[in-house]
From TrEMBL:
Name of this protein: Carbohydrate binding module family 25 domain-containing protein
Keyword list, A-Z: Signal
GO MF annotations in UniProt: starch binding
Range of residues in the leader sequence: 1-31
InterPro entries per the UniProt record, alphabetical: CBM25, Ig-like_fold
Pfam families membership: CBM_25
Residue stretches making up the Carbohydrate binding module family domain: 39-123, 146-229
Naturally occurring in which organism (per UniProt): Phytophthora nicotianae P1976
């Protein structure tokens, strides 16, 4: 009985060891997702919500590594992995195995699969979702497409966000233009609460957001200023509930008066008393 019990313990220990090895292997092999196999090339799809011009640094087979920081990836043309959802691609022809890592395009920040690198041993198509994700409000999330500025905004608690801006020819009339549901896929999609507005200007832009009822996100009174076209994403920094202006005798409220500048915690009402109309102003 003692010998039998000892064998059971050794068997259990062996099974436990094999389970651990299996788990370790799984963590490595699932670092990238296999989309398809076959052919004589390796196709790499990479998704990032932070880097707008990522590089891939790789070694094909027993060859040498590319010169750091590697080679620029191109916007994905695979409809299942759309470029407007942050997907990029790179193809390595005549390769059946590949070891690779990614970086921000200049080699300052790397995604190397937690120091293990990404490795595939069969030709085919593989996808990787970046492990580096430190998106901050106002970040450039897509490079310029040559058509100006594309502004994405997540209002959080606002039902209808507006964008009030100056693209070089003066400020829009308060509250600005209503934003429309985002046409982007994935993280910045309408399903995730994102809205967008496009400005064809190639000069610098100064931007603020509001709910149409006097509640503003103006970057703590500094406004948002961008000088290079591209797609920028902003998350509402002012989620205070809107307040309704009282309509009582003696309170300035009604036609002919309007808020011409506002911030998170204050508004400015400019009135021409002689003609009883609102005068023009900018934030």
């Amino acid at each position: 009985m003692t010998l039998f019990t000892a064998r059971l313990h050794r068997s259990a220990a062996f099974i436990g060891c094999m389970a651990l090895v299996s788990n370790l292997l799984t963590s490595v092999t699932t670092a990238q997702t296999t989309v398809s196999t076959g052919g004589t090339s390796v196709h790499v799809l990479f998704q990032t919500d932070k880097w707008v011009t990522p590089n891939i640094h790789y070694k094909a087979g027993s060859g040498s590594w590319t010169t750091s920081p590697g080679v620029a990836m191109s916007a994905s043309n695979n409809s299942a992995y759309p470029s407007n959802d942050g997907w990029f691609q790179f193809d390595v022809s005549s390769a059946t195995s590949l070891e690779f890592v990614f970086n921000d395009g200049v080699g300052a920040v790397w995604d190397n699969n937690n120091n293990a690198n990404y490795k595939v041993s069969v030709a085919g198509t593989y996808s990787v979702v970046s492990k580096v994700s430190d998106f901050k409000t106002g970040d450039l999330v897509r490079p310029s497409d040559g058509t100006g500025y594309h502004i994405l905004f997540q209002p959080i608690t606002w039902a209808k966000p507006y964008m009030h801006f100056n693209a070089g020819s003066g400020w829009t009339t308060v509250p600005g233009y209503i934003m429309t549901p985002s046409t982007y896929a994935g993280k910045f999609s309408a399903a995730n609460g994102w809205y967008q507005y496009d400005i064809s200007s190639t000069s610098s832009v100064e931007i603020t957001f509001n709910d149409g009822n006097g509640v503003w996100d103006s970057n703590l009174n500094a406004n948002y200023i961008r000088t290079s076209p591209g797609t920028y994403a902003f998350v509402n920094q002012n989620t205070a509930a809107p307040t309704t202006s009282p309509s009582v005798q003696g309170y300035i409220n009604g036609p002919g008066y309007s808020v011409t500048s506002a911030s998170e915690d204050a508004g400015v009402l400019t009135i021409n008393l002689a003609v009883n109309t609102a005068s023009t102003s900018t934030p």
